[in-house]
Amino acid sequence: MKITLIQLGKTEDNYIIDGVEKYEKRLKHYVNFSTITIPALKNTKNLTAEEQKKKEADLIFKQLTNTDFVILLDEKGKEFSSVQFADHINKQMNRAVQNLVFIIGGPYGFDTKVYERANEKISLSKMTFSHQMVRLFFVEQIYRAFTILKGEPYHHE
């Protein structure tokens, strides 16, 4: 299985970049993991939130294939403990999902078309985090999931 994380806009803070890179390197031991960064839209001051979401949706769809299993990171999605999330990833591997794609949306969330395409929605928390912080938290959780699945001592219950 391959896991892809699609994110909108580049990460600007070095401490987040360093943290994400740390976990991406660690993940290479467990799974084929990649990140796709879609450049932030330019000149958004003249766009409504809906127009911006539609433009972002067009860019997201260019990165997807028909066989991708798409999971949106969305505040209204299902919440998991780390162990439950590991089990959820394991179920996708057992179902022979070839490309598991997680998407972090833009500042206004996702366009309706993206919600319709998604197979699932998950939430990291009921709290709101910056899109840049979510990248670090989420990559760490994917790493944590694989250490749980391998029975390694990274996660403590």
TrEMBL record:
SUPFAM superfamilies: alpha/beta knot. S-adenosyl-L-methionine binds at residues 73, 105, 124-129. Its main location: cytoplasm. It is found in: Cytoplasm. It catalyses: pseudouridine(1915) in 23S rRNA + S-adenosyl-L-methionine = N(3)-methylpseudouridine(1915) in 23S rRNA + S-adenosyl-L-homocysteine + H(+). The keyword Phosphoprotein does not apply. Signal peptide: none annotated. One of its GO terms (cellular component) is cytoplasm. It is an enzyme of class 2 (transferase). Keywords: Cytoplasm, Methyltransferase, rRNA processing, S-adenosyl-L-methionine, Transferase. InterPro entries: Alpha/beta_knot_MTases, RlmH-like, tRNA_m1G_MTases_N. Its EC number is 2.1.1.177. Belongs to the RNA methyltransferase RlmH family. HAMAP family: 23SrRNA_methyltr_H (MF_00658). NCBIfam families: PRK00103.2-4 (NF000990). Homodimer. This is Ribosomal RNA large subunit methyltransferase H. The gene is rlmH.
